[in-house]
Design a protein that fits this description.
With about 55 residues, the protein is α+β, with helices and mostly antiparallel strands. It is built from one helix and three strands; from the N terminus they run E-E-E-H. The longest helix has 9 residues. The radius of gyration is 16 Å and the shape is elongated.
Length: about 55
């Protein structure tokens, strides 16, 4: 029997109708021996605001 872990990481941006980023959702999935564990967290609003304020050079 082969045992091991496989990790998946996803980011989803939440956009307002006008295209402004209003949130970011992080999803982590780990599979081990046919068991999947999922962790979902929201990026804090102040960090989302910092990303929105970054201007390309």
């Amino acid at each position: 029997m082969v045992s091991g872990r496989v990790y998946y990481y996803y980011d989803f941006e939440v956009l307002a109708p006008n295209g402004t980023r209003i949130g970011v959702i992080h999803v982590y999935v780990c599979t081990t021996n046919d068991v999947a564990t999922m962790h979902i967290e929201l990026m804090p609003r102040n960090e989302v605001n910092e990303i929105n304020n970054i201007r390309p050079a």
